[in-house]
Give the backbone structure.
Amino acid sequence: MKYISTRGLKEEVPASEAILNGLAPDGGLYIPTQIPYYDIKNKRFLNNTYQELAFDIMAPFLADFTEIELKSCIAQAYDEKFTNELIAPVKKVGNDYYLELFHGPTLAFKDMALSILPYLMTTSLKKQKVKEDIVILTATSGDTGKAAMAGFANVPRTKIIVFYPKEGVSKIQERQMLTQEGANTFVVGINGNFDQAQTTVKQMFNDSELKDQLKKNKQQFSSANSINIGRLIPQIVYYFYAYQQLVLSKEIELGEVINVSVPTGNFGNILAGYYAKEMGLPISQLICASNKNNVLTEFFKTGHYDKNREFYVTNSPSMDILISSNLERLLSLITERDPSRLNEMMLDLAHKGEYSLAAEEKQQLKDFYSGFATEEEIALIVKQVFDKENYVIDPHTAVAKKVADDYLKTNVSDLKTIIVSTASPYKFPAVFLGEAGLANEVEKLSELTGLAIPNSVMELATLPLRHDRVVDVSVMKNTVLSLLNS
Ligand SMILES: *Cc1c(COP(=O)(O)O)cnc(C)c1O
């Protein structure tokens, strides 16, 4: 199994090289040359722990990793830093099944992949006999930045620089980032939004002046964003794991078809679900749930992608995105990996901000249902789920719940639905409380719900602020140049 670029570069590279590069040299994303099959009826599936299943699912994708290497990465990633021993437990709440992906150190699902990525990367450095150190450049809508820094803090031979939209993240998210320890971590607020951060970061990967500077310093760039296959592959695991839990708890029979509803931003999480389906997991519909930035809702309904629209900062900020990078990987699959067609669409996106699918191409999207939730609907769902079930969900998860309910209103289906729960409610307490800006919102949330405050939130109050840079988008590159030499 090797990796090729979506944009047509002929060279096939092994997983370790794709992980180190992040983005392919032609600006495309790496995709696996084939998607392996995983038989859920194999004898081990139902007995596997999270770690064992992670090995079975990831091994074929990481064909150049030895068994010992991969098992060691997995063991170091999925350990006690997850506060739930199942790592990714499924909770039955009413008729819904919530796959809780927020029990990692930073309380969002990004931990599922970013706790293992640093180990995959340092193993790749050794395998590829790379002499340069790694500089991770990352744009974050709030959760990736913290999770990536937590993963890479003090990892030898790495440095990490994170850009986040200064006015576009929750108070807790910002405090988590600004208190980050580790001499190799740097956080920079920008006067701009996530899309601007992500676009500028992508440009920097291919900037020759920066590359020369890196070479002089014996460094090379890589990415911790979900454009890196080292992010995507670990995310496939929990779809299988959730399914296993439903079988073990006798909610479904082995082989029974289910739906999944995923709160979507950069299209990484749901793409991992699509890969799981392609690998053989019996998923019928992948429900792509957006907030008011509903560019994907329109795309799946009409085949027309149009980012020329107002950008909203919402109460589910990790999904405030108009350019969903990982969609490129899906487009590559549905255009039968025809790079010329893909380049056409990506050029249209870059120059006009839009592109359209042909009718046959649109036909290939039938596995996806799309919908969105407004901020008022999100707040209402959070309240309703708590009032009815005494279960607290965060605003991102509420988006997935709302759109899953919409699906059932318009489609007759008796399939069970997994709602992917991507953040702890403690990361976004203002939505539950209904009033932003409360000084003691964490205590208030705990008081009203009886839900224990996670330690990682408690300690935020006393940790010193260690980062204070804020820059304009136009000087992001200069900031990187000066940080490279620090
Ligand atoms: C990143 C994130 C999302 C969106 O995930 P994508 O993989 O970017 O689609 C949803 N919810 C939360 C809490 C997140 O941190």
